[in-house]
Amino acid sequence: MYLDQAASFWGSGFRAFEPVTVSLNAGTASAELGSTTANAGGGWSFTIAETNLGAVASVSANTAALIDAGIVTAMATGADGTLASVPVMVGEKMPVAVVPSIASSMMAGPTADPGKFVAGAVVNGGTMTLVGAGFTPGGGAAVTALTGLGSAGEVKTSSVGLVVVNANGVFIKDFNVSLAPGSYTLEARGVGGSYATAPLWVAPASE
Length: 207
Prior knowledge:
Helix content is 5%, strand content 48%.
């Protein structure tokens, strides 16, 4: 999410016609964005009334905290007690969509020993380090694992998590490995069209 852009949210699983309040939470800083009402099926949608996120008074008052947090929680709070949340990154300006001058790349592997990195193989239940380069500087990327095909031939994926790209177009982040033993394709899709894949083999944990 960017302060110079509009913001919309969608939710489901709420009670029929339940009033819903949408907010951003970054530790001690909280910004209420507005409210809406779920429909008869418990679904709802909400778009801020202001032309851009930065124009919301509660966001403007907490801009530094929201940006410095890196990843904040977008929270939907129902009047009847229903709660829902999703992680989002708040940035100052939408990056200009440009084609990276170099191809994006990514590696995944364990770093059990400081300074040592073995790409491509991790242990189920352990920790893997993702290293990416060539992404849009200052943006973010969503990492997923391709886990197979559905009955209709659709590609099935499992979310690994979100990463923040630094000013040099690089990200480095550790993730817990919760994938079943086997081989996978990891994908990282960033703002501005940045895209990279990496092979990953998940080995069974030793007994």
